[in-house]
Amino acid sequence: MSKPVKQIHLAAHFPGVNNTTVWSDPQAGSQIDFSSFVHLARTAERAKFDFLFLAEGLRLREQNGEIYDLDVVGRPDTFTVLAALAAVTERLGLAGTVNSTFNEPYEVARQFASLDHLSDGRAAWNVVTSWDEFTGENFRRGGFLAQEDRYERARQFLSAARGLFDSWRGDEILADRESGAFLREPGPGRFDHHDGQFDISGHFNVPRSPQGRPVIFQAGDSDAGREFAASAADAIFSRHGTPEAGRAFYTDVKDRLARYGRTRDELKILPGVTFVLGDTEADAHEKAHLIRRQQVSGQTAIRLLEQLWNRDLSAYDPDGPLPEVDPLLGEHTVARGRASVRHHRDPLATAAEWRALAEAKKLSIRELIIEVTGRQSFIGTPARVAEQLNESVQTDAADGFILVPHLTPGGLDEFADTVVPLLQERGVHRTEYEGTTLRDHLGLAAPRPVPSPS
């Protein structure tokens, strides 16, 4: 029996401020003007994408007291932008990253329930944690949390938020726990949540939203993050863009669902990926090389090297050789708690690997960082990229992709005009929206509301 053909879920990540963005390119526009957000959102909607995704930073990234060169334009508030986009789009989902470490469940639940109403059921929440001390300085509570504490707070935060979403008894039918009868009880319901993180109770003041709850995304890659996603998320924003790594991650996370009473279709895995298109394969690869050099400036290269070396390397020439000194072990003093630091479990071994690679290929610091850090996931002609995307989904490396263009706001235009029609011809991407909500687009069932207390 042949395996059913899977539909490819596609989403657009507004590039904003990250190591993908090339703000210095002559074709780049504003990263904060509303017109840029509108352009990308409308491009995604005409290409029948599932949703637009916004990342969030609660503080500009800095190291040794200096702001990253990619962060100088600032970061607008996620809810403000998504609410405004709800008015200029009709079907496109609106997903935003909102932090569970430095926010409170009542505020976040109220904002997302409101966004779901404003958009007629198109809201999604990417639940993330914060690890770094300098972000904490922006908040009254301050400090930073150890990994196990961050995920415990995130679990309880999401549990509390779901209780808030479900506490309003709308027109849906609710089951009476004692009698088994079905009751209609419109109106606000009381919520109570008490645990080691939160001690809250009261009445939620936003009616149950069109989706019941917003779609829940999770973006952590640690074992704790994967377990959190398997237990509570509707979708994962994964960083595994290659087929081999994608299939391993896909299998691992999907295999965890059964112990939470969930089927494999109840969680979508959507890697964030980049792309470069060209008239020929050679043209595309030449463009990709130029883009990587734009993405990794000399300053960025030194900052990324510092995160492994745990030393101030500002005196080093990015076009020169690697430092002769070894990484400093122990408490991280340069970029405390950053995700990129945590990935280097053995800094001395990683440094040795990088030195060997630099020596073998005669690479400078900047050239090495370009070599070892992220690169474009899909490179080639539109036909080749369409083929690669489809093969990845059909072989269970992903359920779809969140595309991160390197230019704002027109970086998605060429993909929408050339690759999407080829996917539609293959019958693996919609030509029209069939539903109205983001849950419809993702093929997710409506969440079951919490039964009304007797």
Automatic annotation (TrEMBL):
Transmembrane segments: none
Source organism of this protein record: Kitasatospora terrestris
Domain Luciferase-like residue range list: 24-395
Family the UniProt entry places it in: Belongs to the NtaA/SnaA/DszA monooxygenase family.
Keyword Ubl conjugation: no
Entry keyword annotation includes Oxidoreductase: yes
MF term (GO), any: monooxygenase activity
Superkingdom of source: Bacteria
Pfam family, one: Bac_luciferase
Alphabetical UniProt keywords: Flavoprotein, FMN, Monooxygenase, Oxidoreductase
Entry protein name: NtaA/DmoA family FMN-dependent monooxygenase
